[in-house]
Amino acid sequence: MKYLSWFGPVQSTVAWPERLRSCVGAFIGILAVYLAGKAIGHMTGMHVWILAPLGATGFLIFVVPSSALAQPWAALGGHVVSALIGIACVRLIPVPELLLPTAVSLSILAMFLLRCLHPPAAATALFVAISGIQAFEYALFPVACGVLVLIATAVIYGKFTRQVYPHRALSRLANGEAAPSAESSSLVDVDRVLANYGGIVDVNRQDLANLVDQIETIAYKNKLKQASCESIMSPSMHCVEANFSLESAWKMLRDKHIKAMPVVDKQDRVVGIITLGDFVLHAAVDFHLSFGQRLRGVLRFSNWKKSAKKVVHSNTVGEIMSSNVRVISADSNLADLITLFELEGHHHIPVINADEKLVGIVTQSDFVKAMLKILSIQSATEV
Question: Where are the transmembrane segments (predicted)?
């Protein structure tokens, strides 16, 4: 079995919709080249009006349209320059043993210099040399015309199948974040790696940077999934019941230097949360009083509400707490917190156990500290 590894890595599996899209595209593309070439051939009286290597070009354009080797300039420039070099070699080199390898090698060199590497184009140079074609017009028709028809077909077909061609680097990553800019560290790092590698990588540098960023994001999320909420939470040392007095709750928040406390029932199940913001919100209802007067009014067990000139007295936590509170399980991973903190805008998340009883609270600060710790460990490992 070890000898099978000499044949290279196993290719990745492609989904059937993509297989069908590629095959149908190649069918339409080659059919368009055939019909256009036949029509032009009849008008010009030329008998050779289709180029065999265009089959390989069709493969690249429709199967791997994101490849740098499949882009319009690579296809058109590669075929045309290879055809011209092949014709020149036929005219100048009478020895077949030198003619064929010279035509192919010079065409590859020219494609390197013109930055239009396209593997099927080397076959064009070889075909021209073998056929003994000496007319430079051959580079225009059927070579250039055939390639242009194939490219045009790919562009139109791509619009209908949502497979954009020519390929452009994605402007956004899969997770919705902006793709790296030209000056980003990702592109700089990719350029350094490519410079050290020295070989040909058949991936656009922007796409390569995007892939690196996505891999890093996935790796980072996997790190987050390895840590539980229980490992970073603060134990539930400070919590109150709904009938707890506002004045006492305020003193606890102030004296313990905390910004939020879970509100629980007799069975330690979370029924709400009270924060500094709740005190500020209820102190700000009556706009005819100063903020200090309003806050003192709340702490004197009076929550002033401007409603038909009535005064509603509130003296317990349950009357001003936020009952719409999100909780998270102690064995949940840190990746689950991203949605709660970033997307839903929460700042304090009560943590519960399997019995749905309060065991702690996780804050944004706890989450940030955990992320920084993971990043520092990851950086140390990479070094």
Answer: 20-36, 48-67, 73-94, 106-133, 139-158
In angstroms, rounded to a whole number, what is the distance separating the alpha carbons of residues 70 and 209?
19
Provide the pLDDT for residue 2.
Answer: 61
309: left (phi over 0), alpha (psi -120 to 50) or beta: left
Which ranges of 45-71 does DSSP label H, i.e. alpha helix?
A: 54-63
301 pLDDT higher than 50: no
Confidence of residue 272 (pLDDT cuts 50, 70, 90): very high
Q: Where are the domains of the chain?
A: 15-161, 188-225, 230-382
The answer to whether 146 and 37 are in contact (CB under 8 A) is yes
- DSSP string of 311-371, one letter each residue: EEE--BGGGTSB-----EETT-BTHHHHIIIIIS--SEEEEE-TTS-EEEEEEHHHHHHHH
Residue 154: exposed, middle, or buried by beta-carbon count in 10 A (0-12, 13-18, 19+)? buried
Q: Which CATH homologous superfamily contains domain 230-382?
A: CBS-domain (3.10.580.10)
Query: How far apart, in whole angstroms, are the C-alpha atoms of residue 56 and residue 315?
Result: 80
How much is the pLDDT for 110? 98
Is residue 318 within 8 Å of 304, Cβ to Cβ? Answer: no
pLDDT of residue 335: 83
pTM (2 d.p.)? 0.59
Q: How far apart are CA 117 and CA 352, in angstroms?
A: 60
Cα-based torsion angle of the residue sequence 22, 139, 36, 132 in order, rounded to the nearest 10 degrees: -90
Three-state SS at 303: strand
* pLDDT value, residue 194: 67
Ranges 41-55, 130-144, 205-219, most confident: 130-144
- Residue 318 has which token pair? 């349950």
Distance, CA of 269 to CA of 355 (rounded, Å): 9
What are the angstrom distances between the C-alpha of 183 and each of 186, 187, 188, 206, 209?
8, 7, 7, 11, 12
